[in-house]
Amino acid sequence: MSVASFAAGISIESAKIPSPPAIRSKDTVPDGSPRAQDPSVDLEMYSMSNIERAPSILRNNSLRAASVRGSTEADPPSNSPPENASEQIQTMWAPYKNRYRVLACCATGFGNGLNDSSQGALIASMERYYNVTYGTVSIIFVCNALGFIAAAFFINAASTKFGRAKTLVIGQSLLMLGYSCIIITPPFPAVCVSFFVLGLGMATNLAIAQVFCSNLANNTALLGFFQGAYGIGGVTGPLIATALVSHGSKWSRFYIIELCLAFANLLFSAWAFWNYEKESTESDPALPVPTSAPNSPQPRRATTARKWQSFKTLLSDTPTILGACFIFAYQGAEVAISGWVISFLVQFRHGDPSKVGFVTSGFWAGITLGRLTLSFLAHSLGERPSVFLFTAGALVLELLVWFVPSIPGDSVAVAFSGLLLGPVYPCAVHIFQRLIPRNMQISSLSLIGSVGSSGGAMAPFMTGMLAQRVGTFVLHPICIGLFGAMAVTWWALPDPEKRDE
């Protein structure tokens, strides 16, 4: 029992002092959870067993209790674990439904990869259908990135208020709305709006899945599986889209597959994550907000101030900012290579478009294989040195593609570049999860994913604009510069503290 709860039952004005309540064991609190005890508090409680105290002593104790109550309203000591307690981390197998939750995360990752990779294969058909240039049709990338950025401002609040299951339902519903609009082949402005809505839904899937997988034991491998599922979608998307278009189907019919997959993911992810908060030993991570008086005369103004303070707290977190810059460069290089290497091989290596078109699938296959295999190696060697090695290797391979005039050699180099870039993302998320406080992870990873998607839109967009003027060879210096930015931001990240699992 704390001093505050004891003093609450004493009336100073009354001349008759009632008997104190029974003293509980010093090793437990009302909710039964163990906690470290304050020796001074215990001595005071036992000394108070003699209720014939002088009024001055009671008054002093009441004042002390009031001050303790004010300090414990925001952080009750009864809920505080011992300082030397080991943090309990869930695994993929415990609780039992975690295995289905990991599978649901992988299913949503597959859907995201299917959507992202198919756009490159469908752009030519969209240009012909709407009679627009590449610069115009590339607006869909920008709109998709804007959806990711906008989602960063509500995902954390939605997860805290509704829980992860209902937040995933919202995300899948947004995807179904966007795909339904595209399927009917509306005017091009409506397609751009639909890609914005798709960005909202995909960002929701990405944030919830990454935070869940990164807080499980052996998270580097699990994040590798999640990103590997994304890569499998990346390999499958262009093949399906190309097959449909080559057989005369309208480009928009591809999204019927995406609509069905989003509906299946809605049902499965809602079932898998239902009652997740009740099973978890901790509440959902939420961005911390400063405490305010409950009887504030201006609650709306206070709420706005708390949100602004929370946003400033997020932007002042060094790992979040450096992580966002790192993922911006990473996804920019990844999407730029995927979208422009074929054009480079056609223009400067005089390749046949019908044959070199499979180089993109080889790149995504390398990413998938790297995430499913090299993620385990990176976890054994250490994520920080592994990312430096993978980035340096990808830079060397990019130089080979640039200067070696051989289509077979360039194709192999592009595939191996994807192999080395594959495990970089799960390794990075593992480090971010250890550097960012748990109560900020959903907001921080949402912001990192949003900024990364912006890189995935801006880098290929700028590559296309420059390619129209000087040629597609600009892909290589842009990617080399992005690899350098990755190395600098990764070096600037602080070393994470080790955590007992």
From TrEMBL:
Region of interest called Disordered, as start-end residue ranges on this chain: 17-45, 66-87, 282-302
SUPFAM superfamilies: MFS general substrate transporter
Compartment(s) where it occurs, according to its Swiss-Prot or TrEMBL record: Membrane
Keyword annotations from UniProtKB, A to Z: Membrane, Transmembrane, Transmembrane helix
TM spans (from-to): 132-155, 167-188, 194-217, 229-248, 254-274, 321-344, 356-374, 386-405, 411-432, 444-467, 473-493
GO cellular component assignments: membrane
PROSITE patterns: MFS
Membrane topology recorded in Swiss-Prot or TrEMBL: Multi-pass membrane protein
Main location class: membrane
Single Gene Ontology MF annotation: transmembrane transporter activity
Bias-annotated ranges (Low complexity): 73-87
Residue intervals of the Major facilitator superfamily (MFS) profile domain: 101-499
Keyword Transmembrane helix appears in the UniProt entry: yes
Pfam families, alphabetized: MFS_1
InterPro entries: MFS, MFS_dom, MFS_trans_sf, MFS_Transporter
Protein known as: Bypass of stop codon 6
